Amino acid sequence: MVEAVRFAAANDLKVSPRGGGHHYGGAALRNGGVLLDLSALDFVEIDGEARKAKVGVGVRGDVLSQQLAAQGFAFPVGHCADVSVSGYLLNGGFGWNSGEWGAACTNVVAIEMVLADGRAILADESHYSDLFWAARGGGPGFFAVVTTYHVALHPLPAATCAWRAAFPADHAPLLADWLSAATDAAAPQTEVGCFLMSHWDSGEPAIVLRVSACGNDETEARERLSSFVSPPRRATLIGEADAVVLPFTELFKLSPMPDGKRVAADHLWASAKLGELLLAVYDIPLCSPHSTIDLVAYGGHSRVSLPNDGALSVGGGTGAGIYAMWDNAADDADNRAWVRRVDQALDAFRVGRYVGEADLTASPTRLVECFTPEALHRLERLRRKYDPAGVFFTWP
Ligand SMILES: Cc1cc2nc3c(=O)[nH]c(=O)nc-3n(C[C@H](O)[C@H](O)[C@H](O)COP(=O)(O)OP(=O)(O)OC[C@H]3O[C@@H](n4cnc5c(N)ncnc54)[C@H](O)[C@@H]3O)c2cc1C
């Protein structure tokens, strides 16, 4: 890695690090320069006694979760199996059980990286603490190559429970207050996903609720879903699964993503409750069968903990991910316009955006909305300090 960065700098080539290549906007794909594919850095070294692990940036969430579980540990990996830790942790990372364990980067204790001048360094609270701050939430366009994360581990939850139910999309007015109240009544450890999507059998527009929680035992995990068991009587269920107990490592199965689609995405944090967001978007027709609007909150509409001292400085208890997924290039403009339309419908509730999923190219203000002003200024100052010659590509 050191050689690669030195070679690029010596030859006046810009560097674009790529972890898993999952960034929705394809941030790693730049014109010219050198692409550093980090996917082969896929080692996991677990120190069970210290409850820590060294994780190569190319490790996928499912692989990390399985290897940790085999030794009785867990980590708040992202919701989809194939997202690697590389960009996920650099963005901050909101993953499974983040309601309890905080944003994933709050569990990072040290970071190995290669700087623009080719130095390989370890950043933590005592060494290169400014880089340690920046790499916990700085996101795409970071000004060094991260190679290894040192992370603190959690005991594997004794039980994990999940429940799913579907209703016709036009039931939103019937469901909204109940959904907000049920979320308010739940524990902060409960994650509530309200997805506007096509029903998996009929293809009709549907509201799909997915509620999950970990607990110290099965009773506690089930209890954390209990405020959702009685939807309003007049609401017609068009699909329901009994609450199931499943291993923590299988939570990914609740978040299937289709392969090979064209994608446009955006994200915002909101001040409103889930029901209010639902009412703002339920009557916007989906632009394509695989597209979804994901409204997510934690029990009590509580905020996920952010690092005390990290670039991840904006967050919220309620988030909205807008994902258009389609097949043909001829439909690009329509799908992009749909993402803009949904974003506009939620704009009145917006308090920020997540740098890992916001479309930073949509407007010049997007980046500003992902950070506090102080954090963004500090990131830019650190970029000038550590990459004065602009070896790395900056924000997309
Ligand atoms: C299906 C799917 C599900 C997702 N689920 C979640 C989720 O649950 N929670 C969540 O928080 N996010 C989620 N995300 C967003 C995810 O955090 C980002 O897409 C993230 O960029 C993925 O990491 P990556 O390594 O694949 O990034 P890449 O696409 O490889 O890289 C994106 C950019 O990040 C920077 N970068 C990446 N790795 C490095 C590195 N090692 N050193 C320096 N710079 C680097 C580069 O600037 C690069 O251009 C999801 C994304 C997808 C596609």
Describe this structure in words.
- This protein has 396 residues and is of the alpha+beta class.
- The chain has two domains: 2-156 and 371-386, Uridine Diphospho-n-acetylenolpyruvylglucosamine Reductase, domain 3, CATH 3.30.465.10; 159-352, Vanillyl-alcohol Oxidase, Chain A, domain 3.
- 23% of the residues lie in helices and 26% in strands.
- It has ten helices and 17 strands.
- It has helices spanning 2-10, 61-69, 85-91, 98-101, 129-134, 172-185, 218-223, 274-281, 332-346, 373-386; strands at 15-18, 34-37, 44-47, 52-56, 73-74, 108-114, 120-123, 145-152, 154-155, 159-168, 191-198, 205-215, 239-245, 262-270, 292-298, 318-326, 350-352.
- The strands form four sheets. The chain has an eight-stranded antiparallel β-sheet with strand order 13-10-12-11-15-16-14-17. It has a five-stranded antiparallel β-sheet with strand order 3-4-8-6-7. It has a two-stranded parallel sheet with strand order 1-2.
- A hairpin with a 6-residue loop joins strand 11 and strand 12.
- Helix 6 (172-185) runs antiparallel to helix 8 (274-281).
- The site of flavin-adenine dinucleotide has 34 residues, from strand 1, helix 3 and strand 8.
- Flavin-adenine dinucleotide (FAD) is lined by residues 16-24, 27-28, 38, 57, 78-80, 83-84, 86-88, 90-91, 93-95, 140-142, 145-146, 257, 356-357.
